[in-house]
Amino acid sequence: MTVADIVKALDLKVLSGAGGLNREVSGGYVSDLLSDVMGKADAGQVWVTLQTHKNVMAIASLKDLAAVILVSGYQPAENTAQQSEEENIPILGTDMSAFEVTGELYTLIRK
Amino acid sequence: MNRYRADLHVHTVLSPCGDLEMSPSNIVKRAALKGIDILGVTDHNSTKHGALIRKLAEKEGIFVLCGAEVTTREEIHCLAFFENDDTLEKFQQYLDTYLADVWNNPSRFGYQVVVDENDMIVEEVNRLLIAAIDQSIDEVEEEVHALGGLFIPAHIDRPSHSLISQLGFMPPGLKVDALEVTGRTTPEDMVSQFPELAPYSFIGSSDAHFPEQLGTRMTVFEMETRSFAEIKKALHREDGRRVSVLTDRSRA
Fold first, then answer.
1. What is the CATH number of the domain that holds A99?
2. Residue B108 confidence class, pLDDT cut points 50, 70, 90
């Protein structure tokens, strides 16, 4: 499954980093503490968060994550979106809460 | 150079978690007993007890830095200090603009009151002061510096509400005047774990919420005199000024 498949299935908006939509997705991780994500997320996962700070992209890149989903209508800071473009790691947006989007994502990935 | 003992992170009764005994007059009395030379007033997202504490502290020969402990959008606690009443008031307006519109429940979080020098309540603040303001850490830093203030991320070694816990590492380009550590670690440990912190001065403070906690952890400022400008110079290690965290061992 690719990031593009998830965008289509969950009707997500591609906010930045469209160049990375063909990245393979291995699973997901949900956390708003970046120190926690640094320690526990694995490569290829989609990260669900409400944090919009540019450090999000530094950690997504460090951990080689497939994409970042911003929940509840949050928008990336300008320099966050810029780094997402440079790294080709997409930031996806949704009005769904973390609870809703994670539920759908889990069902989709476990299929 | 002179050596001054500073406790730059102190809450008053205005913070919901601040003990009712933490009135401006009690804090000043206690600070004098503890030999504190420089006192930082840092209530959660409010500056409203600073001016009174400064006035009372003058009589005891204590220099006061007025400010607040701001909660950013990322839920990072940062100390901010201002040089005069005008910039302090402008920062209060900034906090009022961006603090979340959530109401305090005093039975759950504690009372948020402004008192006078006789400990009589003059105002009860209704908006929950431990909520976050709708501004990123970068935006808060820019606002503090635009007002000529000092910006110091608080207790960065804490597993919650700290720069490191919330953002994982120090964001490049963030302009801090110093970093605060708690007693659970040392500046040397922090730098060995996060080498990007090496250029900065560290302070240690009590984060007092109760009278007996005042001065239990302090920073020594080596500088010519006590003024906002000298404090800033010491934090930036300019002209031979410097700061060091006063540990229990170095106090003996």
1. 3.40.1390.20
2. confident
